[in-house]
Amino acid sequence: MKDDEKAINTNPETKNGLTYLALGDSYTIGQSVTEAERLPVLFAKSMSASGLKVAEPEIIAKTGWTTANLLSNVNSLNAENPYDLVSLLIGVNNQYQGLGLEQYRLEFVKLLQKSISLAGGRANRVFVMSIPDWGSTPAGSGARDIIAKEIDQYNEVAKEECAKEKIVFIDITPSSKRALTDLSLVATDGLHYSGKMHQIWADQAIPAVKMLF
């Protein structure tokens, strides 16, 4: 997948609601959508509208990042104050590059541990979102069955490791498959997802995350 400019957004304001750190790849930074349409931004806005105020998110993500790339960029990160919420959505580029499930598991576990640390040791303030099935986009039309099968395998690993740590796992993969019949859910590049899809994912996460408080 295309590797474009790194995007790390920081927001020093902590008085405007729960502090929130979003970790990931293109689905987190919002490849081919506006800043306002990014998944973490929409999630924070929708959470606030639902009655639990969340500050503007800090985002550490880049299109093309694998678990190894994300690890190398967060390992040295030490928050002065723990985040009230940390989200993790990573793995599509592991699948795309054929890096293998065992490497994914090893690095994903390390990312879970780092996420818990950044949340002040509170596993119940971390949530993970499953890897969307990019085979449902026009770009994946040539190998949809293979992509779907492999994405499911990676998500099963993530789900298993989240269960061990008692971390909330939110399965947004079925929602991503709606792009097969609704092109308004696909971004203009034909590979990533539109702001409309990001809003669907944000709305899906809200009930589960609110249960953490």
**Count of β-strands:** 6
Name the helix and strand elements from N-terminus to C-terminus, one letter apiece: EEHHEHEHHEHEHH
Radius of gyration, CA atoms, in whole angstroms = 16 Å
Biggest sheet overview:
6 strands, mixed
Helix content: 40-55%
Strand content: 5-15%
The CATH superfamily bears the name SGNH hydrolase
CATH class category:
Alpha Beta
**CATH architecture descriptor text:** 3-Layer(aba) Sandwich
Instruction: Give the total of domains.
Output: 1
Based on CA inertia axes, which overall geometry fits?
globular
Helical stretch count?
Answer: 8
| Class of secondary structure makeup | alpha/beta
CATH topology (fold) name: Rossmann fold
Can you characterise this structure?
The chain is an alpha/beta fold and 213 residues long. The chain has one domain: Rossmann fold. 41% of the residues lie in helices and 11% in strands. The chain has helices at 26-29, 39-49, 67-74, 92-96, 101-118, 144-165, 173-176, 195-210; strands at residues 7-9, 20-24, 58-61, 85-89, 126-129, 168-170. Strands 1-3-2-4-5-6 form a six-stranded mixed beta sheet, sandwiched between helices. α6 (144-165) links the parallel β5 (126-129) and β6. α2 crosses α8 (195-210), α3 runs parallel beside α5 and α5 (101-118) packs across α6. The N and C termini lie far apart (36 Å). Mean pLDDT is 93; it is low at 1-14.
